[in-house]
Amino acid sequence: MDESVVQARIPQALVSVLGVESKPTLKAEAFTEAFLKNGLQRTPKCDLKSMLSHKAVVLDFTRPKKEKKNCKKAKGLNAHQKRAMKVFEIKPEHQRYELFLPLHQLWRQYIVDLCGGLKPTSNPNVVQQKLLKADFHGAVITVVRSKCPSYVGTTGILVQEFKHVFKIITKQDKIKVIPKRNSVFAIEINGFISHIYGNKFEHRASERSAKKFKVRGTIDL
Amino acid sequence: MKVWTGGKQGKQRWRRRSNTTPRSLLVCERSSFCDENNRVSSQVEQLHFNYKVSVLLSDCSSAPSHLESLLTSFSHFYLVRNLPLHELLDKQFLETAVYQGNVYGLSYRTRLDEDNCVALMPNGHLVLSLDKDSFQVLGFEGKTSTFNYKTKNRYVVTVDLTDGSMAPGRQAYLRLLTGLTSRLPLQMDFLLSHHPGGGASLQALLSRYIWSEHKPEVGTCSLTHLPCPDLQSCDPHGLLEWLGAVDANISRDNSSSSFLSSLVCPEPKRTVSRALRISICGLLLPHDVQRLIQELRCYLGQCQPESWVSLTVHGFVDSPVSWGGKEHGVLRGGENFYTLFIFHDHTYHLHLAAGAQDTCPP
């Protein structure tokens, strides 16, 4: 809309009809200014003049900015690289049962300490709860029942525990890989024989210490 | 039997009805003893473990003397209490008894569908029928039972003791021995028998445990005015039912006052004035049954032309093996028996019957 239309004087003929009269220019300007001043809210933020006055601007003595160091976290190796490095393989000259007997003694001491001195009068439930979180590397483990008949009866010292298998070394100096699924294992310590149901035990040893075991499903093979 | 069922959203699926009655098998054969290819002797040899033989002689009031003497000369058998199974793998027992092909052994009072059953056949095969837990603990190779293979409750371990791999000292032999001694020490009552002349072989084994010697029980009963069907034309099912009723002494009058049995003798029938029923119970060996058949044929040769003889041999219900070492199971009955009708002119009718969990008789 054209501003000249708004600012045009009202014709004389319409004065009596509308009931208003145009004021002279100077009076109209003064009136508009006064009207706006009363009507609009004055925010202190917009008060630029007061913002700029009485403020000191420091030119020297600035703090030097610290440079952020690019700290790279060690990303670690992925599984492909780990397998290539062959860290977890046991060399044939090390595959002797006698070499692992000290490890077994160490494990026995560890378990006895863990269960607070494994006396014949200890409560089996307490021992069982402790064993659930314990580490089994170095234990003498026996397969008691299995869906596959050829696994039954194998006995040896546990060398490595993975998510789904046990690697044990038998007295005949053979490394046997026994899947945990569908097998029941027995571990004996100081007269306490515990049976591990492999179906419920398929976790990494490191994750098992933090795992809560729930009674779910059957222990039938 | 398959049935259409209307499923959700108009999908139609097949569903199998599982409430059909268990099947039974009956194999019938008619031939003559004079025929060279007759299968009677081979049939008799193949059913190793027999517990009852019933004989029905028509037109006879008392047992002839030859028959009496034969019946009393049946092989004796031994019952051993609580025999540990690893004793069957004893080296001396193997050499003296098993390798000679002399020994018949069967576990006594073990139910085939619930407990573990063991059979030792004369050809040196040891058959163990185990339930799931026992098999998983034993740790010796075996197969699931051919019956109820989906639920996998029953496993059969078959070991050939005469094979080279099972010779004492070999790996397989040691594995089975450690399995039966340390992992699964089974003990059960055992029935043992041997071919004539092999008695000494069992003595060493028997001397270590509680044992008792038994001879087969013989019972005779003479019957008068026995209605019997026409054997040549009667259908096998009706005939066997009538014969079973005679053997079990069930009345076949179908009188209105009796509510126990409504069995009737199949038509057409004639009345036999006198008949003799003999039953022998125990662990009966096939060669004794062969001798009995020979004796009955001789006796029949001296009788009238219309007379006949029927011989029914029942196999053990709880035996893990049936004809020829094939697997046997018990569903509701567990019957496996054969009936032989012998006629004056050297012809015979042979009926072989098996239950639901049996393979077809040979």
Write the element-wise H/E pattern of chain B from the N-terminal end onward. EEEHEHEHEEEHEEHEHEEHEHEEE
* Average of the residue pLDDT scores of chain B: 86
Q: Largest interface, per-chain counts?
A: A-B, 10 and 14 residues
Structural class of chain B: alpha+beta
Protein name (chain B): Ribonuclease P protein subunit p40 isoform X1
GO molecular function (chain B): ribonuclease MRP activity; ribonuclease P activity
Organism (chain B): Betta splendens
Pfam families (chain B): Ribonuc_P_40
Could you please describe the fold and organization of this structure?
Chain A: Belongs to the eukaryotic/archaeal RNase P protein component 1 family. Chain A: Keywords: Nucleus, Phosphoprotein, tRNA processing. Chain A: It holds the Pfam family RNase_P-MRP_p29. Chain A: Its main location: nucleus. The complex is a heterodimer of chains A (221) and B (362). Chain A has 221 residues and is of the alpha+beta class. Chain A folds into 2 domains: 12-71, no CATH class; 96-208, SH3 type barrels. Chain A is 30% helix and 17% strand. Chain A has a 6-stranded antiparallel beta sheet. By secondary structure, chain B is of the alpha+beta class. Chain B has 2 domains: 2-74 and 216-354, no CATH class; 77-214, no CATH class. The radius of gyration of chain B is 23 Å and the shape is globular. The two termini of chain B are 27 Å apart. The mean pLDDT of chain B is 86. Chains A and B meet through strand 1 of A and helix 4 and helix 5 of B.
